[in-house]
Amino acid sequence: MSTNKAVDRAAILQGTLDLLILRTLALGAHHGHGIVLAIQHGSREALLVDHGSLYPALQRMEANGWIRGKWGVSDNNRRARFYELTADGRKQLSKEAGEWRRIAQAVTLVLGPELAGG
Amino acid sequence: MRWQFFKRARRDEDFANEVASHLALEADRLVQLGLPPEEAMRAARRAFGNTATAREQFHEAHRALWLEHLTQDVRYALRAMRRRPGFTAIAILTIALSIGLNTTIFSIFDAVALRPLSLGGSNPVLSLYQEFHRARGGGRKVSGGASLFSLPEYLEYRDQNSVFSGLAAYVPEFTAALDTDARPVRGQLTSCNYFEVLEAAPVIGRGFAPSECVGDDAGPVAVISHDLWQTKYAADPAILGKTVRLNRIPLTIIGVAAPGFQGTEIVVPTFWAPLTMQWALSGRAAQASQLHEENLSWLAVIGRLKERLTLSGARANLRVIAARLDQKYSGRTTRLLVEKARLLAQPEARGIVFAVGGVFLAAVGLVLLVACANLANLFLVRAASRQREIAVRLATGASRWRIVRQLLTESLLIALLGGCLGTVLAQGSASAIAALITSDPGSTPLRIPVGIDLRVFGYALLLTVGTGLAFGLAPALQATRPDLIRALKQEDYDPEGGRTWLRRSLVGIQVAVCLVLLMAAGLLLRGLKRAQTVDPGFVMNGVTTLSFDLQREGYTAAQASAFELALATSLRGLPGVDEVALAATVPLGSAHTSSPFRAPENPQLSVELNVVSAGFFRSVRIPLVRGRDFNSAETAAGGHVVIVNESAARKFWPGQDALGKLLHDSQDRGYTVVGVARDAEVSALGQEHVPFLFFAATPSEGLEIKTAIVRSTGSDPSSAIRAAALSLDPDLHINTGSLRDVLGPYLQVSALTAALSAILGALALLLASIGIYGTVAYAVWRRTREIGIRAALGADSGKVIGLIVYQAMRPVAIGAVIGTGLCLGAS
């Protein structure tokens, strides 16, 4: 898939995609395409969202009641489905973000200062 | 990653639109970056991924995807089942046994009570019954069932309705002596359109003609069953025109019914005769003709619906006629019951069948429930040993529902296999039970046409799916509960964990239930043995009985009385005979009647009675505690005398001496008490202290006397007794037997109940063992690590095993104590 185009860009870890989507939507409603661009842009093109796996994630999250989808019109006048965060989604975001930070911190602690060649 | 389908609030089309919109937006972006539009669209598609487009198509035909998931789940389940063949076999067998048991009982119930009769013919056959509300003054006479019709009522429905192509009436069961055969046969007396309405023309000869139904004795003819034609007449082709004697009335055989035609009742008829022969066949001396009785229930009514008419249409039409009849016979409101014809269709019979069937179905349903609890236990063990695998799958993004569905597929698959096997078993066992019930040559010929129809199949399927869900859901939910961290870390140590109490109490309950069942079986068996050695208060040994029915033979009361006098005299002359008595029925016989009586100043009381000659008490050794036996003057002259038992004396004259007191019947005739007999179990086994009256057999009651009781010593006198009776009337239908035979029905019932509870008990025991195995296996599995540590620290294996056995046996012991307590409480 698209990963081979940009080997230096990390494919998004399973489970992390949800967190990224929630965070993106916390800033305002987006359609799927917009979410992809926002994540890529927000990570300074370091993270790559596989277009094909975005929608299953959106569907699952909508089913979980974290986000809500509504049809609307995009900036360039195309019909698109816009997603926004629900109250549950906000809770989920703070929970997942907290967990992620804890893990990241723990991993960083273990790694310690940069070693030569490390 | 998989698409999620558990919330299908969005339509597939909507989703396809969303994907299209995404592709368009991406293409727009690429065009902005300078790509030509066509190239941009291709790139957008590529970015979305090839699989995605394929999935999109799949999504549009999600049915196919469902199917794919299902086959995946089934394959997964089959693999899991193959990995543990022993476990799978036990599970399937458990389900097969319990569903087989349930389906067996249900298919018998279905055959007799639910399934419409398959009578052939073009249109459905309906049965009519009626119930009366606020029948003022009552006074309706009943012969064979209160919901039956009188002939004038039937004629009204037949002539006024516009919904039946034909409406027939018949006496549901008429017992008659056939020629000089010892055993009476069952038949039906029918209206003359009977065979036309049922579209069951005789194979030889004809049905009845209208002229044979115009009045009493109009049609001395009969149609015989195909069976009788083959067995008694050796399939004689020249059968028509021969004479058959029913209750001594000669009838000309005009037809042989089609093979397999058995009427519409559960009792299989051997002959059919016109309704108009009812009076003659019942013995003219005993009562008047019933043909013109307006207020008598004696005829069942069935009709063949006209082309293209519905049940509700028929009901509406018939209700109008019922209302008209209610106007004619004021003081009553009829409620008509119109249904498709079924085997046991009479409302009275249905009430009993539904009550009994309900009890049976509930009992076997309990067994199924126990089986479900067991399998749930086993599956918990299974799921527990797969917890790590499940946890990993959950962690990698599989939804809980998806895994639950996979686990459920496995339990449903096992349930289905078990259900199929069980249904096959049920087929065999239901036929075997039906054959057992219907094959007894001594009893009434019945038919129970068991078979798998949609209803039985649906019942079995419902049970199967219910079972699969019942034993699969809880383990599946528990195995996938979102407590992943612990599962991943495999923290198994949980010696007295909170979730085990449910399993333990399940085991305890099972043990208790199966103990109750087994003990009940044991108690019943002991009761059975006791019944054979019981002292009912009279002495059965050495007593031979001779039974006859002079009313059916067409005797008048005077003829009957003369016959009985001669019979008693000739029996007394037989060698070895000590005592001879005549009675309406033997002690413990099934033909006791009851009637209301009162002593002056006391309320009326319905009491069972027998009509006996002098010598009855000596012949069955019931002692008279006060007064004396009837004397011959009383029996000859019709003196108004009665002998009461102790309970009756206490009931009618509490605290007084009953001797010499007067007892009044409902017509206010007075009877003087000449003796008090000791209480004995003459009306029913185990009912010793029930009021009972003995009236003197007077000449006017000659037709009531139906049995001779002979006490003798030495060799069996039955053949001499038969000879003596037949020398008085060579055509008489008689039966001889031992007085002990009256215990037969009691023994049979207890034997059947004992067998049933033994089977249920054994099954419950089997299930409980499986359940205990499950709990122990689970406990051991959960504590493998702990056991390992104990072993490593030097605990010897005997101690470890002892610990496990102790913990496993604790619920068993508690259940056993509870079960024993229940049995002690109940007995």
List keywords for this structure.
heterodimer, A: 118 residues, alpha+beta, Arc Repressor Mutant, subunit A, three-stranded antiparallel sheet, two-stranded parallel sheet, globular, B: 827 residues, 4 domains, ten-stranded mixed sheet, six-stranded mixed beta barrel
Written overview of the protein:
The complex is a heterodimer of chains A (118) and B (827). Chain A is of the alpha+beta class. Chain A has one domain: Winged helix-like DNA-binding domain superfamily/Winged helix DNA-binding domain (Arc Repressor Mutant, subunit A), CATH 1.10.10. Chain A contains four helices and five strands, in the order E-H-E-H-E-H-E-E-H. Chain A has helices spanning 16-26, 32-42, 51-63, 87-111; strands spanning 10-11, 30-31, 47-48, 67-73, 79-85. In chain A, strands 2-5-4 form a three-stranded antiparallel β-sheet. Chain A has a two-stranded parallel sheet with strand order 1-3. In chain A, strand 4 and strand 5 form a beta hairpin. In chain A, helix 1 (16-26) crosses helix 4. Chain A starts with 9 loop residues before the first strand and ends in a 7-residue tail after the last helix. In chain A, 30% of the residues are buried. Helices cover 50% and strands 16% of the residues of chain B. Chain B is an alpha+beta fold. In chain B, strands 1, 3, 4, 5, 6, 7, 8, 9, 11 and 12 form a ten-stranded mixed β-sheet that branches. Chain B has a six-stranded mixed beta barrel with strand order 15-16-21-18-20-19. The longest helix of chain B is centred in the middle third of the chain and has 40 residues, at 400-439. Chain B is globular and about 130 Å long. Chain B has 24 helices and 23 strands. The A-B interface holds A 1-2, 14-15, 31-34, 37, 50-53, 55-57, 59-60, 62-63, 69, 74, 76, 78-81 and B 1-4, 6-7, 10, 15, 17-19, 21-22, 24-26, 28-29, 46-49, 51-52, 55, 396-397, 399.
